[in-house]
Amino acid sequence: MTTVERPLGAPEIGGIGHSVKRHEDARLIEGQGNFLDDIELPGMLHMAILRSPVAHARIVSIDTSEAEAIDGVVAVVTGELMAEHGLAWMPTLSGDTQAVLATDKVRFQGQEVAAVVATDPYVAEDALELIVVDYEDLPVLTTPQQALADDAPVIRDDKEGQEGNLVYEWEAGDAVATDAAFAAADRVVSLTTHYPRSHPAPLETCGALADVNSVTGQATIWLTSQAPHAHRTLFAMVAGLPEQNIRIISPDLGGGFGNKVPIYPGYVVATAASLLLGTPVKWIESRSENLISTGFARDYYMEGELALNDEGRILALRVRMLSDQGAFYADAQPTQFKAGLFHVVTGSYDFAAAHIVCSGAYTNKAPGGVAYRCSFRITEASFLIERLVQTAAYELGIDPAEIRFKNFIQPDQFPYETPTGFVYDSGDYPTALSTALEEVGYEALRAEQAEARAEGRLIGIGIAHFTEAVGAGPSRQYDIAGLKMIDSAELRVHPTGKAILKLGVKTQGQGHETTFAQIVASELGIPVTDIKVEHGDTDNTPYGLGTYASRSTPVGGAATAMVARKLAAKARDIAAHLLEAASDDIDMLDGKLFVRGTPERSVTIQDVALAAYTNLPAGMEYGLEGVHYYDPPNLTYPYGSYIVVVEIDAETGVWKVRRVVALDDCGVRINPMIVEGQIHGGLTEGFAMSSMQWITFDPDGNCIGSNFMDYLVPTAWETPRFELLHTSVPSPHHPIGAKGVGESATVGSPAAFVNAVVDALAHLGVRNIDMPVLPDRVWAAIQAASS
Amino acid sequence: MEVNVTINGTAHAADVEPRMLLVDHIRRVVGLTGTHIGCDTTSCGACTVLVDGTPVKACTVLAVQADGRAVTTVEGLKSNGQLHPIQEAFKAEHGLQCGFCTPGMMLVGAALIEQNPAPSDDDVRWAISGNLCRCTGYMNIVKAIQAAAAGAATGEDK
User: What is the pTM assigned to this prediction?
Assistant: First the structure.
């Protein structure tokens, strides 16, 4: 077993490894959270947005006169007005443009057409009903295949030089080596599947409260933002406001999951309205608006082929992927990687050649393509390779666990460079899978499955072993809109020994106010209860790219450890002065600084903090504070083995989850209680995507899934119970050996659920059922296999 | 229209539009923002309050329908400066992450344990099946409600 447990510090300090109860809970359990819609400003007006009811049309005319005549309506904003201020269009995080309010055409159902600002939110909604828009319908394209057909109308005719609907083409790996490996292979196994469009649907929708002071030029904008600093910079660039006059405050967020990474038109319109009217303007979208217009996820059409030898060793992987981007390319991908980190699709396996060809198309659907609880399209990649390996197992007649053991990257191969250029830093995959198999009782389950089949009952055992690549990322490779993906922490220790930690990252429920304080507690010995964590306010925190792609702990957590170490070095110098010893002879443990070998000669970190402001050696700068910007040398690579057991009712196709055993390795666990909570949530999202969550469209481009009655997310009743295990192989390059965990289970588990259903039907010849694996699809697969 | 609603033990009289939703009345007129809005369609339960002790989704009830009734919101769970056991349990069992669904979940949990002092896992899951959580996967919410029922919120405290 390669698990390395970090030594626990004193429980009263509450450092790394302790399941410290969360600091943020105190306000949240008493209804004292401060979510965006909870904020009221004097004189505040309310904004509502008129959205297109059709998916593709030319705007012939917009008549706002009746709406403007209602009592309480202060202004009606159209694209024409925005255009007068140069704000009808805005850049996306992926280098495209997106309409703020439509001027020429609408390109998806739900697109922003006009906005009403009123004294009361109900009045604003009333006025929307009275705006008359004359639309001239245009042909609607709802799939990338339609969009790339030769005769397809050009959706983005607003873009000079745009021909057709291709958004990007991108490739990774080595085509020649891959072709050669396929030519020499004994067997080729293929799988074609669609990872369907989903929506993160955080329980709190998106919104903005803009307060632009027309006298001072100060713009204070509360945003539901996972990346407040990046958003401030982009606001400065879009609106032409001086960056020092823009203060973005991201208050308590009711979940994010990638949905609160993009900049939305409503944010820009609310800010423009506040600027024009000189009053604060609040905009909160409805659930329906959230589901039909804000960042969707997935929608990848994938064709994968594995080349293998007869013994089941993988030789090469070939993938073609076509993504549906919607009407605007509004992914938030690192600039160099058009399909995000999808090229991590080689997974946990050791083989020499891979070639990945990706392209994307515009369609008349909402833009987005956000990394929904996922490090840049890694969920799609993990799903494809784990489904392919499972398929290969059936085709070659090898047990699905055994084929993985045959092909795993071995512990002694790390650091391991994959055929598409990732350098996996650490791991012990065989131990992870064998531990999970033992826990679930794999051999006995296979025997039970055989007996059940003999009786006509269907039991399936699904395995997925995933490797994530998170913590973007090293500045040499990773930027968004030109901004390098570093992150930061600032730490101030006050004279009484109490500390404030300020972060560039921003929690949406992950518990940063607790876990980041624990990192400082471990490094400096200051009790975790004496450390306040601040984040989300750009005037009050150092710069950072924000929280998504599991980057908070790998990047922001590393910055926190590093700034604490800077302060620890100074603390040792001060202690040496106080103890009349040499700095090199000072050790620190649990908040005491002592002379090595004579622990009775000691001072506390609190003594040192006081001395930093009262009693310093000559020439030393006063204070005990610092800031650190962390540029990670590599990504981190959490992994896990998930096993799902299902039973299927052959008469109806309904499947029920009997067990979920999930082993995760996220390196050093800062707070095991919070780690487990993250995994519970991620497993639920994986179950959701495999079983029910689905944003689809009719041929006219009407969104099916525009509310929580049509877009099904799991309740407590459907959600399976989870059994968690862990190993702990520390990241060798991360300052505290942590790897990040918030998205692991969302990335790894969908394949485990689908593999379980397919495994139950494998003996009938079923190899694939696309997600969501709805009962009617299962039933149809059984019928097709039986006929 | 004149409505008189007792919220967390305090009478609130107000003149409201007939179409004013109870949740907007609580949040915007009375100014208690612990009750949240997540969907507008009675699906998510973020707006759950207790009306005369029964969980109700305040986004699809009019303020005038609550006239003469007693409403409990999350702000009313604490009494005499003491957290309600369900509040203690949600913290102790890590029953919340972003905290947006938490007020509704706790109120449903509090109402459940009034009726059923020892709810099973299925009892709890059925009771909260009208309340969505996107963060926790429900595991620790169920544990928290059961722990509150048992009066034994456990765990290392800090």
Answer: 0.97
DSSP line for A393-451: HHHHT--HHHHHHHHBPPGGG-SEE-TTS-EE----HHHHHHHHHHHHTHHHHHHHHHH
The answer to whether B29 contacts chain A (CB < 8 Å) is: no
Shortest distance between the Cα of A497 and any Cα of chain B, in A, equals: 18
Position with higher pLDDT, A546 vs A7: A546
Task: Collect all residues with Cβ–Cβ distance below 8 Å to A177 and sequence separation of at least 6.
Answer: A316, A352, A353, A355, A419
Nearest CA-CA partner of A320 in A518, A144, A124: A144
Higher pLDDT pick, A638 / A3? A638
The band of B156, judged by pLDDT with boundaries at 50, 70 and 90, is: very low
| Domain spanning A36-138+205-252+260-293: CATH 3.30.565.10 | no
Catalytic site positions of A: 226, 373-374, 743
Chain B residues with CB-CB distance to A32 below 8 A: 34
For chain A, domain boundaries: 25-33+487-630, 36-138+205-252+260-293, 375-471+636-786
Burial (0-12, 13-18, 19+ Cβ within 10 Å), A688: buried
Cβ of A441 under 8 Å from any chain B Cβ?
A: no
- Domain ranges (residues) in chain B: 2-76, 85-150
| Cβ contact B92–A681 (<8 Å) | no
Which residue of chain B comes nearest to A508, CA vs CA? B98
- Check for a shared fold between A36-138+205-252+260-293 and A375-471+636-786: no
Q: Is A20 on the interface with B (CB under 8 A)?
A: yes
Considering only the top CATH level, what class is A375-471+636-786?
Answer: alpha beta
Taking CA–CA distances from B88, the nearest residue in chain A reads: A29
Closest residue on chain B to A30 (Cα): B75
Residue A481 Rama label (left phi>0; alpha psi -120 to 50; beta): left
Domain A25-33+487-630 fold is Aldehyde Oxidoreductase; domain 4 (3.30.365)
Using the predicted structure, report yes or no on whether residue A633 has a pLDDT greater than 80.
yes
Question: Per residue in A327-354, pLDDT tens?
Answer: 999 988 899 999 999 999 999 999 999 9
CATH topology of domain B85-150: DNA polymerase; domain 1 (1.10.150)
Best of A199, A286, A292, A715 to disrupt the B interface (most B CBs within 10 Å) is: A715
Q: Which of B17, B32, B36 sits opposite A35 (nearest CB)?
A: B36
Distance in Å from the first CA to the final CA of chain B: 48
Calculate mean pLDDT across residues A289-293: 98
Token pair for residue A563?
Answer: 């700034």
Strand intervals (E) in A245-313 = 246-249, 281-284, 297-308
For A719-774, the pLDDT digits (tens) are 999 999 999 999 999 999 999 999 999 999 999 999 999 999 999 999 999 999 99
Residues in contact with A35: Cβ distance below 8 Å, sequence separation at least 6, in sequence order? A204, A251, A252, A253, A254, B33, B36, B100
Cα angle, residue A81 at apex, residues A78 and A82 outer, rounded to 5°: 85
| Three-class SS state of A236 | helix
User: B90, A29: Cβ pair inside 8 Å?
Assistant: yes
Nearest CB to B33: which of A14, A38, A680?
Answer: A38
Of A257, A673, A713, the CB nearest to B132: A713
Architecture of domain B2-76: Roll (3.10)
Contact across the interface for A204 and B38, Cβ inside 8 Å: yes
Q: Which residues 64-103 on chain B approach chain A with CB closer than 8 angstroms?
A: 73-75, 77-78, 83, 87, 90-92, 94, 96-103
Determine the average pLDDT of the residues in A634-661: 98
Residue-level pLDDT at A2: 58
Of A255, A674, A684, the CB nearest to B94: A674
Residue B30 in contact with partner chain A when CB distance is under 8 A: no
User: Is residue A55 predicted with pLDDT exceeding 60?
Assistant: yes
